[in-house]
Structure formats: structure tokens, C-alpha cells
Amino acid sequence: FDEPLSNLDAALRVQTRLEIAKLHHAIGTASMIYVTHDQVEAMTLADKIVLLRAGEDVQKKGSIAQVGSPLTLYHRPASLFVAEFIGSPKMNILPGLLEHAAADRSEVRLIGTPFSAAIDSTRLASGATISVGVRPEDMRLSDAAGTNVVTGQIEHIEKLGDASLLYVNVGAQIPLLTMKVEGTATQSIGSTVHMYCPPEALHLFDVEGDACRRTPELPT
Q: Does the structure show a pLDDT above 60 at 58?
């Protein structure tokens, strides 16, 4: 299949995607190759995803970024490219400093705040420049600032019914962070919010964009 749903409206796309999934299950052991730019289709239909690189780097464009199950790409992205591509809303990325490299619990500093991350960072040196990622759905509201807490001001709110997206300014030169909260948000634009980022939810990338291994047991 090559982009079979691209010209369908939203409702028909969902229905047809379900029919393709049922067909795949009915066929059983036969392999199906499905080409798509839609990550929802890839995540819901695939047993294994081959994610190809895009972008301006002609030496990497079209090369394989990662091969694995949908949940492997979601929970253990091999690179910054994969991490930002998989997931909607996309992963938040913050610049940071690796203060203490460790095999199971690394210490990093983001926006002047100490963070503990369940990451094996032993291939890097303490003091290395890094990027840390956290998905909007993994963040939690906190009552106060502290370790693993990012503080900022809400610039925009999207109320989706079952959930709300908070877009938060945490400082100059840093893109707005997105946080997903259940239900209808009670916060208002301009208010200060503290966002807790669990150590087990963090991702760490070196200056080349390659991921360090996450240590928690994760679905595959």
C-alpha cells in the first residue's frame, strides 16, 4: 500500500484504517508493506516500522533512522530525529548540561534547575552538553518549584474536551513547552505553572542527537 488513505476525509480515513487492520489480521502470516507519512497510521497498523530520515542533510536524507515496533520507537527513540517525529503533540526538547554521568540515574541541569534522569549516560563525560526530552503526556502539575520541575507562564491553552494542551514559556531562546492535562484546564493564560517531569519519563541525547539508553522497563 502506498499512501492509500491520503485523499480520504478524516472520518473515512479512520474507518478505512480499521478495515486495513482487520485485513492484515485475517491474512495472518503474510507480510504487508505500507508506505505513509502519517505517524498515526504507522503506529496503529504496523508490527514493525522502518522510519526514514528527512531534512536538509543530503547525506542522511532517505537513510534509515530506526527500525522497530511502534512502541519501541515511541519509548526508546534512537535519536533526536525519531523522538521529535514520533508522538503528537511532539516531544519537548530542552538544552542542558550533564552534571553527573551514571549507569542508572544521571544528574542533569536544565534552565538552572537540577534534574534526575533514569538514563545510562556512561558513554558521555560529566559536563557534556546534552538535550533532554519529555513528552507532553508524561508531565504532571506540581505545587511548587524543585528538582525535576520546570516553571513558566502559560501563553496559550487548547481545550480538546477530554484533555487540554498548555503551551508554556519557560525562558528566552527556548521553544514553548507543551503539557497535556486531563479534562478541561482550570489554569488561565498568563498564570504561572510548575511542571514535574518524572525521572523515568526523560530522554537524553548527545550533541550529535544520538540517544542514551533509558533504564526503566518499558513496553515493547
A: no
